Amino acid sequence: MSEIKPRFEFRTFAQNFGMVVNKMRKLSALDKIRESSEIYIMSAGNNENNTKVRDDLMDIKVFVTRDRGLEQWNPRMKGSFAMKAAMIRDEVFAAFGVAPPDFKREEYTLQEFLEEIIRPHKDLVAVKVIKRRYGFTVNNCITEYAELLINGAAIQTVAVESVSVEDILKAKEMLGLDEYENINYLLAIKRIIGMEPLND
């Protein structure tokens, strides 16, 4: 089997991407629209592992490297609920970078995990994110515009992904994104909920 190369990503957030989205639509037909409801787990002890749950499946991605202002992320683990306490302790809390609690069950449903493990923990916060994503292809890059509700706060995001850094940089230029800050979901959500300071 051929090796799967992790993609590099440019992502940014704003209240409105009107001109950027217009350019996106001119450069590419709309590939698909996807809607989802996800739960991101924010940890005060970690800025390099992105942990989210969608459809009872936990997905953890780890930051790998930066190249010319872009970020590369790689899967760290995938797990489904109900989940064994041992896996939560050894895999999930290792990604959170904070001390695990005492576990009172051998296995946890998602609801039990959120209510009994995450909610009482002083360094962890569960954040609900509703996404409506519009997919395009620009300069051979996976490109998306999305409308988000992050704990009810409305915001938009645009992302450009590829294994080729050069293709992303060219796509950014084509879309007028060169002046935007590269912000991953982890940092954006932490800023919105007050776990990280806003950029001046």
Explain this structure to me?
This protein has five helices and ten strands, in the order βαβββββαβαβββαα. The protein has a single domain (8-193), classed as Hypothetical Protein Pfu-838710-001 (Beta Barrel), CATH 2.40.320.10. The protein is 26% helix and 43% strand. By secondary structure, it is an alpha+beta fold. The longest helix is centred in the middle third of the chain and has 12 residues, at 85-96. Strand 3 and strand 4 form a beta hairpin. The model has no long low-confidence stretch (mean pLDDT 94). The strands form two sheets. The chain has an eight-stranded antiparallel barrel with strand order 1-5-4-3-2-8-9-10, surrounded by four helices.
Helix content: 25-40%
Major pleated sheet: 8 strands, antiparallel, barrel
On the 0 to 100 scale, the average pLDDT is 94
Number of strands: 10
Widest β-sheet, arrangement of strands: 1-5-4-3-2-8-9-10
Within CATH, the superfamily carries the name Hypothetical Protein Pfu-838710-001
Number of helices: 5
Low-pLDDT stretches are: none
CATH third-tier fold name: Hypothetical Protein Pfu-838710-001
Computed CA radius of gyration, to the nearest angstrom: 18 Å
Count of the separate structural domains: 1
CATH class: Mainly Beta
Which percent band covers the strand fraction? 35-45%
Report the structural category.
alpha+beta
| Amino-to-carboxy terminus distance | 46 Å
User: What best-fitting shape do the alpha-carbon axes yield?
Assistant: elongated
What is the chain-wise order of helices and strands? EHEEEEEHEHEEEHH
Q: CATH architecture, please?
A: Beta Barrel
